[in-house]
Each structure stands twice: as C-alpha cells, then as structure tokens.
Amino acid sequence: MNAFQLALRVLRVDRRTRASAILTMVGVAVATGLVLLLAALPFATQAREQRAQWQEPYGYSDEGKSSMLVNSAKDYFDGKEIVRVDVALTGSASDLHLPAGISKLPGPGETLVSPELGKLLNTVPGNQLGDRFGKPVDALGEQALRYPEQLVALVGHSPQELQGSGAHALTGVAGTPVADFPDGQAKPDGVLALLAGVGIVVLLVPSLVLVASSARLTAARREQRLAALRLAGATPGQVTSMVAVETGLSAGAGALLGLLVSPVLHGLATFIPWAGGTWLAADFSLPVGLTVAIMVVIPALVVLAGVLGLRRVLRTPLFATGGHQVKPLRWWRLLALPAAGLFFFTAIVTGRHSSGGGEMVLFGLFLVVASAMVVGPWVTSAVGGTFVRIWRRPSTLLAGRRLREDPKGAYRASAGIVLAVFAGSMALTLLPSFESLSGGGRQYVDSALYADVSPEKAGAMVEQANSKLAQDGVQERAVAVPTVYLSKASEGQHRIQRTYVMTCADAARLTRLGISEKDCKPDVGLYAPYEFDTSQYVVEGDAGNDAVTKPLGSVPVGRYTLDQDVYASYVIEPTSLPAGVQPMDVSIVVPTTDADREMVRTALASVSAGSEIGSRDQHLYDQQQTLGDLRRVTVIGLLAAGILAGCSAAVATAGAVMDRRRTFGALIAAGTPVRVLARALRMEAALPSLVATIGAGVVGILVGLGLFSLFSEGDITLSPWVLAPVVLGVGVALLGASVCTPALKRVQAEPLSDE
Length: 755
Fold this sequence. Notes:
alpha+beta; 4 domains; six-stranded mixed beta sheet; 22 helices; transmembrane; ABC3_permease_C; ABC transporter permease; membrane
C-alpha cells in the first residue's frame, strides 16, 4: 500500500483525523481567498486609473500635431466631487482615438455626463448645477468612469474659449494643446497597494495559525500512529510521504475551495468604497501566473509545516510514544524584542535623513512582529511558573503545569490575537495623529467660494458674476482680491510676505486671518500681526526675484491677532497700494450661505469657463476622504483579524483537549470534576493571552509613535480608542477559551479504552 492509499484509508476510518482535515481545509480556503482578494487590490486600482486616464491632463499625448485643447478641473455639488474635463477640437476628429465609454466629442455648448450626474441634472434646478455645463447630449459609459457612481462632465468649447496656456494665462481656463487621448499604462494606487501588503501579513498569519491549530487537533494520535509505523520498519521517507499526502489533500482541497469562493469575496469587496466610490466587478482580476503561484505556495507552506513537525517522530519514535523531556526556555528570548525595537527605532532616526530608509523601517517592523514568536512562549512559561508557585486551587496548578511543560503549544492559541492587537494598536495610534494634521487651505472663511482668474479679466468677470447673482436673487456680491508681495532685503536674502489688496471690512468678512471689524481704523493702510517700519519695504506684483517693485512708503500699520490655523499674511487697503504695481494673481471671492451656496458656485463657474471653484471644505475633501478610507480599512481589518484569531484560539483550545484525551480521561475516571478541568483550561488559554495582548498593545502604540515621527514632527494625539484592540483581544481570548467545557464533556462521554 503506497503513501497515497494509506493516507486515504486513515482519513476514511479515523473520524478525528477527518475532522482535523476538514478544519485544515477550511483554514487554507480562508487564507487562499484572503490572499487572492488582497493581491488583486493593486490590479483593481490600476484598472480604475486606466479607465480614468482621460480625466487627468498629464496623461495626454503631446507628440505630433495638436488636435484639441484640454483642461481638467474639479467641481463640487452638495459635498460631492465632480470631475470636469473641458475640450475644444482644433484638428480633425478622425485623428483622435476616443477612450472606451466615450461615443463622441461634445461640440461647443454641449456636454457628455456620467449617469449619476445626469440624474442630478434632472432633479436639481439649472441655476444650482446645470448652468455650469452645456446641454447634455449623451451619457458616458462605465468604461470611462473611475467608479460607477462617479460624477463626470466632458464639456465642449470652441478653440477661442480655451486659448492660452501657462500658470498665469488664466482666462477662466487655459487649455493645453494635445495630440490625442491617453493610451499609456496607468499605475496602481500606492497607498492601497501598501495596505494590501500589510493586510496579507496581518490576515494571512491568523489564517495560517488557524490551519496549524486545526492540524494540532489530532497531533498526539498522529505522532503515535507515525511512531508505530517507524517502529514497524517504515522508513523516514515513507512516513514523510504519508504525512505530506495527508496534509496535501486537505491543503489542496482548501486552496481549490478558496479559489471557488474568491469571486464571492471579490463581489463583496466591490461594495466597499475607496477614494470616493465603489468598484466594477471586472476590476478584481489577477494575472493567471500570480493566481497559480498563490494556489501552489499556500498549500506548499502548509505541507512544509506538517513535514517539519515530524522531526521528533523520525529521529526518536520511542519519545513520541512514551513521552519526552521538555527543554526549559532560556531568558535570552526576552532580548529579541528590545533588539528588534532598537533596530526599528534606529531605522526610524536614519530614515528621516535619507531617501532610502523606508526599506530598513519595514524590515525593522518585520523584526518587531517576528520577535513576538520568540518572546511569547517565554512569557507563557513565566505565567505558568507563577501559577505553580501561588496555586491555591487544583485548577491553578493544572494550568500552571501545562503552561510550563508546553509553552510553545500554549502560546500558539494567542499568536493570532497578539498580531491583531499589535496591528490595531499601531493603526489607532497613527490615525488620530494624522487627523490632527489635517487642515490648511486658503485664507478665506469656510463659507466663501473663490476662483483664481487673470488680472485682465477679473473686472469683467466680477461684473458678469454679480449680474448672474442678482438674476438668481442672491444678496451677496463677488469681490476681486488681488495678491501682491511685500519684500525687504535682509542680509542678502530676498524675503517676501503675501499681502491681500482689500478693504479691512472685506478682510473681516471674507478671511479667517483673525481680523475683526473692531480692528479696522480709518487712518490705517496696512494690517499685520505685528508693527514694523513700512518705509523699508517695497511692493511687487509677483513673487519672482526679477519682479518690478515700488516703494511702499510710510503707511500706518494696524495690528490684529493671527488665527492659529493660517499662515501670517498682510492686508493692504486699495488706496495704500503704490501706483504702477501690477498684481499677477487675482481671486474672485463670494461669501455664501447654506441656501445659496450652489447658486453662487454655479454663477462663478458659468463666467469662468471651467476654472476650478475652490473653498476650504473642498481643500479638505481629499484629506477627509483619505482618513475615512483608512478608518474603514482599519475597522474591517481588525474585525477580520479578530474573527480569525478567535477561531484559531478556539480550535487551539479544543486541540489542547484532544491532545490530552488520555490524561483528561484518566483524571475524570479518577473523580476529578469536569468544572475543575474546564477552569484549568480556561486559565491556561485566557491568562497568557491577556498578558500577551496587553504587551502587544503597548508595543503597537510605541511602534505607531515611531512611524508617526517618520512622517511628521508634530505632537502625537492619543485617542481612548487605542485601547479598543486590547479589549477586543481579551474578548476574543475569553471566547476562544469557552470551548473547553464542550470539549471536555465530549471526552467524558467517550470510553477511556478508546485511548
């Protein structure tokens, strides 16, 4: 009988081995499905960006004869982002290769809109949204959208409307001459690719721990069976082949099951938003070669782990059948964590001053995670020694003896929980700190909308915007705010200070610099956070070193208290601006209310021909969206890791009972109450997990502090939520320990002669 036939026979006649194989198969299926999903995320983001290349101006081809003018900007409605692409045909339409999902180019006054934007246009008055674009003539297909619910408008213009280019040639909008639509290869989202890699580690390890715990359900019986075969004359190769086949059958079946389940996971993933929207089902596709590699590597790792566990049986089969002396764990294991931490924080310090330090930081992070596998068993053994010394009940002594005799096996149930708590504490340390860094934006008040235009067009555009506002019944009016710069030659350095040309009353109403109406004085011409001698300063219209300057002269300076959330800026009264200064930057600013906000935005958009309309909440839009994505990913990752860790802890606890069926059966037969044994099992499963979980939480917080210092020198912000992973880990450990009572009752119900 060959190894394959023998493995099949064992699976067919041994119910416990069959149960272990089924659980192993489920664990491998979970691991395979998760890896296939996470590995597909970078390719999914790449597919997204490939469809949306035409929405980004930098992807267009500028080689060859110019065929059209293109400009891309972001618009907003009711807190939702709208991508607006303005095009004007300058050559032959037959020379263009239209992207998938775009049936034709819109002509002047026409627009192509995405289905979701089309629905909005049909339900919202034109003076709030529709007047920003031309007449809708067709819909964009989903192959032209980054995600299905994306709001996109492809707006047609005449070439005259989009003439001009350069940073300061803003006639509302400046089109860039291009030869054709983009046809290059898009790049995946780097942030999600990094998170996918971290997720593979954070979720794969608990999955493999679950597989290992499932395999341990029949570890003692398997060792006895294999040792008997060795004593009967089986060669090490035959025993190894039998185990490899037995493990390979369940691992291979689990990998195939994971492959079959992966479309379901991909379908569920399409509903999880990222970067503003959900996904198309076709986004989650992996190259065939990578899929085959994953399907081979994961079962191979499981088989390798099973074969490596045979070393004791192959070398000393008598020890496997008759017991063996456990070697005590040495104190030097404790040095692993400080050494890894020292390397990690050294990499952090050096990484701040070098561009290539990121790899060393990641390697240091890996060492910190790996050190838990070295320190954890020693901590488990130490907890067991404490139980033995202070025991007052039989259950305490039994638990302590178990932890002292097999600390590696006892820690195995906690390994997944420890990693989940570490990752969660690290993430919840970083997130609040990154949230504290969000902010910034222009100096205008939150309710103001503004558009940057060319100085030559500013006056006419203000008149047109105010006419539109009056027509729509809006009380507020647009104000043109030029920007100039005050400079003073100091020790050979050219230092400049941004200065807004506006009245003090407008500054108090439109800016968040800190100027209030009580700061306004009739004899003051310049407002600043501090007083200075204006006669030593000159005024220039541009920030360039070769800009034309005019002496400011003696101008009375009024002080105001600068708001903490803005950079220091000056305000100069228009009457105090020296003659001949030509500002290069002008913003049209309009304050709004919740009732007229979209009408004001539409009025500005209609006169600026595609120039981006800004506000502070739009400036913070990307920051808040990224933070929301990170929060969502963190919650999902913690829940998945917690579930996997709980399952592995429960299976490991059940495996501990199965491994000691003979011992527990004898104790029960001798009159030991099941509740005493159950209490001992709960203590040996839960208390080491509690200690390790608290330690993992502390280490996770420290690692999070180190990573944050790599990105920012700001103050760290600790939230009470940083304790959530520790609480979750303790709950999972207690849940895993709760399976010991049913397992013991199962042992009690079976005759001792079976062992």
